[in-house]
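hey so i finally got around to running both of the ones u sent me last week. sorry it took forever, my laptop kept dying halfway thru and i had to restart like 3 times lol. anyway pasting them below in the order u listed, first the sequence line then the structure token line for each. didnt double check formatting much so if smth looks off just lmk and ill redo it

first one:
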Amino acid sequence: MIKRLELTWIHETSDESIGKYVQNKIGRLDRFIPRRDRGAVHVKVCLKKVKAADNRRYICEIILYLPGGIVLKTEEASLNTYAAIDISESKLKAQLLKHRQQHSNPRIYHKIFSKFNRSGIALRQVFINRYNVYAIS
């Protein structure tokens, strides 16, 4: 779980159930952050209530600060607070996966592929899942 999480309400009173929901949803994003960076991650969540002429909308803005000055930001509006949180969380998850893919250590995959090359399996037959490597024959 992410330890440094700030929750801010604008134009709305704070609700304990929504606070726990945000803590649970956003706190689980640490699975997508490299282990060496998990202690230094800081998250700001801002929930806004916008009163338009025809309906009420809720805006969820999430700013995630990673070490090295990297900032990931998402903002989503919806008719429901929970829906706005869910959509923002999925967008931030996609950004974290892209960041992890760009900044991961390519030598790990080099070691994995070299083992399969020695055993005579072609690279196109190797399927890498999140945690496992499978050889497709």
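and the second one:
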Amino acid sequence: MKAKKLRPYIIVFVVVAIIFGGIQAYSLISKPYKVEKLTPATADDFIEADGIIVKDEKIITSKTNGSNRFLISEGEKINNNGKIALVYPQNGDVELLNQINDLNTQIDQLQNSSSVDSAYMSDATKIEEDINTKIAEISKLAEKKTTATIHKKTTELQVLFNKKQIVLGQINNVQAIIDELTAKRDELVKKTGNNSISSVTSPYSGYFSSSFDGYENILSPKFLLEGGYEKYKEVMDSTPNGVAPKDYVCKINASFTWYFACTVPKDSLKRYSVGDQISLRLSSLSNDTMPANFAQITPMDDFDYIVFSSNSYSSDLLKARKLKAQIVTKKYTGFRVNKNAIRIQNDKKGVFSLRGSQVQFKEVNVLFMKDEYVIIKQTENSKTNLLAGEEVVVSGKNLFDGKIIS
């Protein structure tokens, strides 16, 4: 009888032993501490604004009827009296010229795709977000039937798709593809022979673009700087048809200086004056920043109207018009790490750095925090320097300065 009474207790003991053994085994094979390497990083505070790019654009036209074959690429610099294009008879070599222009478009797209932004390389989701944003923009434009702008946005979307393939490793040697397309184009160019009936030259020095959005005949630096907010608002509310005139050949951006006009929340930039420098990020085009100056500051009742000027030039600006920009008001430079790495020891904020098998507490300042990560910088009270690639503990219990862990 006694043996039967003990049986339930024996079963309970065995179950407890199994659970305890499992916990012990798990603790032996699992790592009680999780570490992450410090990565040099920058972050910033910014004000986001929708606005418009204004450039000194000169329209080039030709009275000769025919098909143009451009001799220079999109964004390429041309000198005064430089040759832009050859004009061929309307009924001759048209198919060949279309093939050449298609190849030039593919080459331009791949060249624009080859310089992948650092933001895309470190965060693959960023390019996916930009692709989705671009698709949404095209969808909205389709409703308005703005054909010329849709073509421009579709080209930008193709560049983003190319960049995505590069980031994912699906395109390994972009330059080899560019070289192959260039060779095909050059072979077709030879077949056109010397059938051109005239040529087009530029009376200006500057940067070439064959695009046309309809603002070329409306906007100019003078119009922007003298017209004030009222003229700016008229332009922002307008949508030109974007159809180029029949005699249109191209446009030349004849000045390094360009302008970005926008409105910002009231007094959000009140500490700045005309002539002060600031950084702009044209987030619709790139994640990089470029220097700009305050050209005009006009306080309004509920907001401020700002015009920035910049001499920092890129080929992306040639086709840019209405876009979203980030006005950077403060930058932070330090190390990026998971926010769980931040610990409090003796009322001091810091991280536990792993040196060999020993952890060391290093006091830090948290400069910037976003989502799951922070940007940190060591304080002057830290015993030793923080180094790039150094491992810090982001998960672990019962840590203290000098503790030996395995």
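quick thing i noticed on the 2nd:
The chain is about 35% helix and 35% strand.
anyway thats it, ttyl
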